[in-house]
Amino acid sequence: MGTEESAKFRCPVCQACFRNSPTCLRCGADLAPLQLLIDQAYRLRQRAKWALESGDVERAQEGAAEAEKLCSTQKGRELWLLSAWLLNEIQNLRPSSSPRQAAGTIPFTGCAAQLIPVRFTLNNVTANQGDRIFLTGDTAELGNWTQHRPTFDNAEGPAACWISRSWFLRVSVPAEQTIQFKFIKIAADGTLTWEEGSNHTYTVPTSGEGSVTVNWQY
Length: 218
What we know:
The chain is α+β, with helices and mostly antiparallel strands. It folds into 2 domains: about 5-95, no CATH class; about 115-215, Sandwich (Immunoglobulin-like). It has helices at about 5, 30-55, 55-70, 75-95, 145-150; strands at about 115-125, 130-135, 160-165, 165-175, 180-185, 190-195, 200-205, 210-215. Helix 2 packs antiparallel against helix 3 and helix 3 packs antiparallel against helix 4 (about 75-95).
């Protein structure tokens, strides 16, 4: 998360400026839950911007709206309003059900790959308090690592830790596609650690929901 965005938030206990830390530097309050919400909203907005640049206005509007639900910001509201307006304009350009197209109208056609929700579970990873786990891979939904590695701003996450050393998150990815992915650990001090070894692979089902469980590779 960039410092420009993080500087807009304050500790809910003492109102000190939020400094991208798991604890408040002034009063010691636990800011980890707030940090997770801000990080998730930031990444949703980044993906919404990329979707907007690629012409996928509907996905951009959905991402911007979801980000606003998690953590509203001025720029976030502007992004949501812009994408919502563009989506409305595109819908107005779609041809009616009439067999004859009115003169001067522009036909609109769209094609989007079917997405399947997949639960990614990571076991046997050693993490300390304040560490976060992210997921990245070779699809746009997972950040398309071949274009952005070694940064992680486009990665999916952070994952939730539900039992000791096990983390999970749910991401929708293209149906019937064999994807490659890896996990990233971000320490509380910002140190980034990629998994060792070869990429994990998983073939997404054609319908329903998917699930894949892997161990962290040391």
